[in-house]
Design brief:
- There is one protein chain.
- The chain has 152 residues and is an alpha+beta fold.
- The protein has a domain of 92 residues: Alpha-Beta Plaits, CATH 3.30.70.
- Helices cover 29% and strands 25% of the residues.
- Strands 4-5-3-6 form a 4-stranded antiparallel sheet.
- Helix 1 crosses helix 2 and helix 1 packs antiparallel against helix 3.
- 12% of the residues are buried.
Length: 152
């Protein structure tokens, strides 16, 4: 190669790389509630349900496939605001992590109870249990700080 080496342009920390091009940052105020969403009382902040699933070795792909085919649409219907759905690439392997935003603990309970009563969700859980893919499930309820980039 002749001439000077190609050096990537400096990246602005608030911009993301999309296919080699810099794009404007995504809006992080996730205030797009689903149907039937009542909204929060003034002065309250959302909560986030952080869910961590540890799969048996070599079973992450099976868990993700089953969830994508039978669980994802049901959770979108009932829970509505998924902030992210991930699998690990480093650290604790065989782990799936997802996060769901709710207006309050009462909103979370109402939505999760409706999902638990859905026969299709009960069927999904039975199939997941039959396949015996998981070692453990955990969850944590989080509240964003005042300076968190994700606010609802």
């Amino acid at each position: 190669m002749h001439g000077r080496p190609i050096v990537p342009a400096a990246r602005h920390p608030d911009k993301r790389d999309v296919g080699g091009a810099l794009a404007e940052p995504r809006r992080r105020g996730l205030r797009s509630p689903g149907p039937g969403h009542a909204g929060r009382e003034e002065g309250t902040r959302m909560i986030v349900d952080l869910r961590i699933y540890t799969c048996k070795p070599n079973k992450v792909a099976d868990f993700v496939r089953l969830y994508q085919e039978k669980g994802w649409q049901l959770q979108q219907k009932h829970l509505g605001r998924c902030l992210g759905w991930y699998t690990t690439v480093e650290g604790a392997l065989n782990t799936v992590v997802h996060m769901w935003a709710y207006d309050s603990q009462a909103d979370r309970e109402t939505r999760r109870n409706a999902m638990a009563a859905d026969p299709a969700w009960v069927e999904y859980l039975a199939e997941a249990a039959k396949l015996d893919l998981l070692v453990k499930m955990e969850n944590r309820i989080l509240r964003p700080t005042a300076f968190s980039p994700v606010q609802a």
